[in-house]
């Protein structure tokens, strides 16, 4: 569910975009296509062999093989049998080859396309994710790519084989039949092809709608599963079931529209095929009876036409799979074509050499389609000092952090680290230099140790344990069933909020960044846990540039400087004592929290 600003305007068809993406697989595509063609040719040999057998019985010494010098009927059938064995063996081998190649190609493209789409997704700016749903993105990375795999597994081969059969049949008919019979037999073909193209064009928007509806359905499911505790606590099960039923009903109706059209294709094509087959059966039979063509050739053509025309009946199913795949391909390619707004700079930043001096110079910023939230703000943070930022909700505190990490870029103004514009710095180096501990701690499904070492993947066990001790997490970790090897569950749901918070602090300790950001790091914990976390923070902020955002003023009263934000600007600045003496906004906050006037 991506908003319009992020929809691409690529005019090329999904197939063109897919072929352009698949240039690296040309060799595999050529090999698979070659074996499909070889298999089709060999698959059409049995009708010819039947015709030769009939020719031997009718013509005997004057048969096709007899004219090659083998006059004895026994040896003619022996040779025919040998050719049949060879044809069937190579037909089986070619089928194994094309099936293996197409299916491996499907797996390779599926694998690489999913990785490319995911890697591209990781580099998109935060605004993209705010305008997109998790379920919708999951639908693209999973369902849509699987649709493409399904088509490549069989649909591409079917189209190649039907095309090859058609060319061989036309060539054979023109060589064997009188022109009048050929025209009569092939008369339905233009209508079949025209009908297939019309069917394809009409089906395309219907399957695009199906993919959109399944995206909405997946979004609803993902959202509800993530919020199951809220649903239960508000006894909203029936309400959410009804909302899911609406999304599922919309998906069902969208599919029904596509099915209504696709189901009509086969019966219509069947009637057109009947016209061509009947024309050949009657007119070809009369030509054979009159001696204008041999009975053997008549037999071959009857079987060949049947072998070509009846697969055309099922071409509708192939087109159906094709349109599903193209609708999905468009969604995947639209994701890949989404421009990356936050681009890396060229200047390297060596973490061990970063002093940590941060400066905001006349910074202005507004989220997309929203009012300006940071207004011409300037702020200097000396290296190694702790700066606290306080203010009411919505004043822009967390936005300053997001701008420093380049989750967003400023609308105007410059942010520097050690005097260098952060937009000119290598993006990975920039973020490696900053450690973030936020109130919304995200733990990955894995062990406690893996989560502490996340981002510093070569961290030793000793470093992990030492970090846990500094974060005052070691004791509770050792009480867990498997200690540091305990699985924390998805999003760390097996741990309490305070435990998750301390693991996040331990993660920052292991990373050992020159700049540390604490975004409401103690806002969601009890007083005892807050005291433990505060002791940890007192240790890790020594001689480290620290930006602390907090509502609990008791946690930041010892900061070197406290900045008060209001309406996107810094309106007060100073130490705790200086701000209390000023008797302004900060003093008001302090009096409310402490009850002291």
TrEMBL record:
Q: Which InterPro entries match?
A: AAA+_ATPase, ABC1_TM_dom, ABC1_TM_sf, ABC_transporter-like_ATP-bd, ABC_transporter-like_CS, P-loop_NTPase, Type_1_exporter
Protein name from the UniProt record: ABC transporter ATP-binding protein
Spell out the GO cellular component terms annotated for this protein, sorted alphabetically and separated by semicolons: plasma membrane
Q: Which PROSITE patterns match?
A: ABC_TM1F, ABC_TRANSPORTER_1, ABC_TRANSPORTER_2
* Transport found in the keyword field: yes
The segment(s) forming the ABC transmembrane type-1 domain are 36-324
Query: Where is each ABC transporter domain found?
Result: 358-592
Alphabetized, the UniProt keywords read: ATP-binding, Membrane, Nucleotide-binding, Transmembrane, Transmembrane helix, Transport
What organism is listed for this UniProt entry? Answer: Chlorogloeopsis fritschii PCC 6912
Grouped into one coarse class, the protein's main location is membrane
User: Where in the cell is the protein located?
Assistant: Cell membrane
Q: Where does the source fall among the domains of life?
A: Bacteria
- Molecular functions (GO terms): ABC-type oligopeptide transporter activity; ATP binding; ATP hydrolysis activity
Membrane-crossing segments per the record: 73-90, 166-194, 261-289, 295-316
Q: How does it sit in the membrane?
A: Multi-pass membrane protein
């Amino acid at each position: 569910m991506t908003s319009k600003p992020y929809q691409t305007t690529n005019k090329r068809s999904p197939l063109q975009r897919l072929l352009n993406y698949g240039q690296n697989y040309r060799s595999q595509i050529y090999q698979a296509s070659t074996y499909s063609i070889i298999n089709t040719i060999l698959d059409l040999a049995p009708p010819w062999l039947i015709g030769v057998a009939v020719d031997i019985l009718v013509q005997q010494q004057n048969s096709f093989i007899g004219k090659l010098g083998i006059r004895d009927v026994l040896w003619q059938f022996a040779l025919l049998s040998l050719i049949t064995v060879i044809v069937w063996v190579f037909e089986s081998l070619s089928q194994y080859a094309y099936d293996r190649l197409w299916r491996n190609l499907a797996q390779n493209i599926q694998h690489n396309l999913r990785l490319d789409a995911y890697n591209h997704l990781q580099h998109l700016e935060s605004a993209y994710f705010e305008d997109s749903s998790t379920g919708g993105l999951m639908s693209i990375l999973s369902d849509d790519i699987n649709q493409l795999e399904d088509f490549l597994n069989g649909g591409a081969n079917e189209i190649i084989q039907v095309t090859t059969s058609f060319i061989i049949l036309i060539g054979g008919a023109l060589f064997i039949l009188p022109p009048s019979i050929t025209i009569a037999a092939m008369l339905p073909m233009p209508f079949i092809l025209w009908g297939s193209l019309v069917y394809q064009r009409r089906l395309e928007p219907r399957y695009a709608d199906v993919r959109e509806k399944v995206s909405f359905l997946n979004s609803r499911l993902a959202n509800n599963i993530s919020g199951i505790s809220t649903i239960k606590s508000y006894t909203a099960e029936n309400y959410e079931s009804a909302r899911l039923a609406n999304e599922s009903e919309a998906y069902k109706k969208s599919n029904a529209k596509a099915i209504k059209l696709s189901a009509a294709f086969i019966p219509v094509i069947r009637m057109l095929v009947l016209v061509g087959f009947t024309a050949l059966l009657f007119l070809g039979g009369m030509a054979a009876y009159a001696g204008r063509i041999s009975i053997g050739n008549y037999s071959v053509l009857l079987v060949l036409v049947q072998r070509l025309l009846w697969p055309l009946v099922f071409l509708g199913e192939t087109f159906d799979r094709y349109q599903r795949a193209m609708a999905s391909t468009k969604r995947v390619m639209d994701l890949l074509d989404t421009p990356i707004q936050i681009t890396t700079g060229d200047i390297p930043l060596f973490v061990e050499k970063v002093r940590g001096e941060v400066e905001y110079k006349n910074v202005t910023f507004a989220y997309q389609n929203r009012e300006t939230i940071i207004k011409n703000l300037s702020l200097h943070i000396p290296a190694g000092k702790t700066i606290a930022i306080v203010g009411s909700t919505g004043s822009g505190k967390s936005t300053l952090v997001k701008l420093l990490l380049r989750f967003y870029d400023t609308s105007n103004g410059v942010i520097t680290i050690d005097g260098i514009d952060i937009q000119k710095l290598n993006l990975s180096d920039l973020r490696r230099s900053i450690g973030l501990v936020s109130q919304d701690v995200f733990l990955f499904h894995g062990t406690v140790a893996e989560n502490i070492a996340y981002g510093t993947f070569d961290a030793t066990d000793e470093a992990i344990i030492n970090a846990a001790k500094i974060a005052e997490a070691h004791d509770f970790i050792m009480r867990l069933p498997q200690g540091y090897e305990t699985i924390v569950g998805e999003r760390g749901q097996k741990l309490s909020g305070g435990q998750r918070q301390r693991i996040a602090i331990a993660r920052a300790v292991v990373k050992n960044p020159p700049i540390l950001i604490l975004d409401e790091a103690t806002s969601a914990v009890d007083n005892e846990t807050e005291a433990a976390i505060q002791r940890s923070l007192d240790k890790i902020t020594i001689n480290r540039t620290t930006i602390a955002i907090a509502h609990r003023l008791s946690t930041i009263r010892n900061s070197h400087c406290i900045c008060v934000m209001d309406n996107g600007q810094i309106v007060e600045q100073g130490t705790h004592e200086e701000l209390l003496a000023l008797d302004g906004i900060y003093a008001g906050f302090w009096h409310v929290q402490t009850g002291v006037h």
